[in-house]
Amino acid sequence: MYIPSIASTIGKAAIVVLVMFSYPLQVHPCRASVDAVLKWRPLKRNPNTRSPNSSPSRAMPLLNPGKHLGHGRDDFIGETRFAAITTTIIVSSYLVAMTVTSLERALAYVGSTGSTSISFILPGLFYYKISAPDSPLNLLAKEDDDNRTSESESEYDETSPGRGGMRSSCWSRWKKDLIRTLSLALAIYGLIVMIVCFITNTFFIVAH
After folding, report:
1. How far is CA 39 from CA 50, 82, 83, 144, in A?
2. Alpha helices (runs of H) in 71-162, residue ranges in sequence order
3. Across the chain, how many H-helices and E-strands are there?
4. Over the stretch 5-26, which tens digit does the pLDDT of each residue have?
5. Is 0.70 topped by the overall pTM?
6. CB–CB of 157/104 below 8 Å?
7. Which of helix, strand or coil describes residue 30?
8. Are 137 and 130 in contact (CB under 8 A)?
9. Cys-Cys link to 130, which of 18, 83, 137, 142 (CB 3.0-4.6 A)?
10. Burial of 83 by CB count in 10 Å (0-12 exposed, 13-18 middle, 19+ buried)?
């Protein structure tokens, strides 16, 4: 493929070193993500209990050992589970590397699915989820907005008491609803782009 020379040999050796050290770094988060997906279960909401995956309160330190308090996340992976997930990832990546002969095809599918998900679908869905009326993060943001609104209302209390608060509250509510709708539209747009790109890539690959 390459003309034998000192430069090409150095380049090949650099690629070997890159793959040798970057692959374990990629397997580690992949294994953790697969384990988290396999452990996920839909939880019934109960106002009296705290979900292990919920956001911590503002009064709690971020580095507080949550396991001793009874609401820490279970990130432990057993040896058998660790070996099974790692073996599956390694075998799957090996089969893909030996089967796929064109890097262009792999990048085309990665771009049509992964890039659109990260750029359009996931940000829109995340904001639509956390901005729900019953979301804990939305309640915290609402408290901050109320505090800021109460501070800004003090300037208008002398001339028009009550009107400034009503206007700012309506404008804030309308703006939040608009942004939430636009976030859902962004996710739908990303889904359409992903489907179109995926079908287009498949059509061109089959045609050629």
Report:
1. 18, 13, 16, 34
2. 79-99, 103-110, 116, 122-130, 136-153
3. 8, 0
4. 888 899 989 988 998 889 889 9
5. no
6. no
7. helix
8. yes
9. 137
10. exposed
